[in-house]
Amino acid sequence: MNSQGAKMLFLVDDDAKLRRLLVKFLRDNGFDVREFSGGGGVVEAISDGEPVAVILDIMMPGESGLQILRRIRRESAVPVIMLTAKGEDEDRIAGLELGADDYLPKPFNPRELLARINAVLRRTVPREEATTAATETVEAGGFVLNRRRRTVSAGGAEQELSSTEFKLLEALMTHPGMMLSRDELLNFARGKDFGPFDRSIDVHISKVRTKTESLPGGRRCIKTVWGSGYMFEVEK
């Protein structure tokens, strides 16, 4: 590390000029940064010492960012912010479906990237010191949400959640039977740095549904309240 105690970020981008710019900017703002020009070694490095977040470009020669993200998600729930080409909605949606936590279209202002990193970190602050045994898990409708592990389980099986998926499910499970609007869920999951009309929340909800329904005895526990939001249903 360049500065003792600095939070480690991984930056994966084949553009050396952009990497130099971002490394300097992020280090000036209190982060340490490890650079990668491609996917080689990224997953192994995450396993050796998990960073607080990964900044991952989608458009790279050879292994794409989406392929790298898929490999990351097999091993880790570390927050991932994707860098996408402007207007490439399909890549953005694919990244969210694979478990990315946020995305930022190129070109972008480094200050916006910093704001998004900080927003991700605010919702993924380690809970070990603050969490007690009584509040470490949330149980509702036959599902158990583990705050420390950031997982959901049922029937003896467990699914890892991305940071955004975790915050959405936490919000819904701690308000069972209550309809939460998209704006309310955005405030739970992404903070106030983001606009209230970001429809990517629907992609994240779809991903949560897939994970909960894949568990033994899993069921469709998240109800869509058309035109309004979502509700966690508890079986009677």
TrEMBL record:
The keyword Phosphoprotein applies. Pfam families: Response_reg (PF00072), Trans_reg_C (PF00486). CDD domains: trans_reg_C. GO terms for molecular function: DNA binding. Keywords: DNA-binding, Phosphoprotein, Transcription, Transcription regulation, Two-component regulatory system. It comes from the Bacteria. Signal peptide: none annotated. Residues 8-121 form the Response regulatory domain. The modification 4-aspartylphosphate is found at residue 57. InterPro entries: CheY-like_superfamily, OmpR/PhoB-type_DNA-bd, Sig_transdc_resp-reg_C-effctor, Sig_transdc_resp-reg_receiver, WalR-like, WH-like_DNA-bd_sf. Residues 135-234 bind DNA. SMART domains: REC, Trans_reg_C. Residues 135-234 form the OmpR/PhoB-type domain. The keyword Transcription regulation applies. This is DNA-binding response regulator. The lineage of its organism: Bacteria, Pseudomonadati, Thermodesulfobacteriota, Desulfuromonadia, Geobacterales.
